[in-house]
Amino acid sequence: MTAADLTALLASGEELYSLLLSEAEALLRNFDTNSSEDFEQAVACRERIMTSLDDFNGRLSSLASQDSGHGDAEQLLSSFRRLQEESTKKIVELDSLVIALARERLVTLGEEMSALARGRSALHSYEGGREERHNMSRTA
Length: 140
Fold this sequence. Notes:
Elements: H1 3-29, H2 36-66, H3 71-139
Helix pairs in contact: 1-2, 1-3
C-alpha cells in the first residue's frame, strides 16, 4: 500500500472518531430533552460507527503488518494513534458524564415514586378512616 493509501485510510479513521465524538457530545448536550427513542437511535448510530471502526482497525492492522516501517508511515501512524487516544479519552469522559446524569435522574425518580407511594398510602388511610366514621354515624 502506498503512502497515499495510508493517508486516505487514516483520514477515514479520523472521520470515524470525529463522528463518534460528535455523537457522544450530542448525547450529553441533549440529555434532558432526549426521549427513550432518541437515546436508542443514538446508541444504534454509535454501534454502527463502532462497527466501522472495527473494520477500519482490521484494515489498519493488515496494513501495519505489511509495512516495512518507513519513516513517513510510522510518523503518520504515530500521529493517528495520538488522535485516537485523545478522542477515546474525550468520549469516555462524555459518556461518564451521561452515566452520572442518568444515575442522578434515577435517584430523583426513585424519590418521587416513593413520595407518591407515601401520599397514596396516606390518602388511602384517610379515606378508610372517613368511611369508618361515616358508617358509625349511620348506626347511631
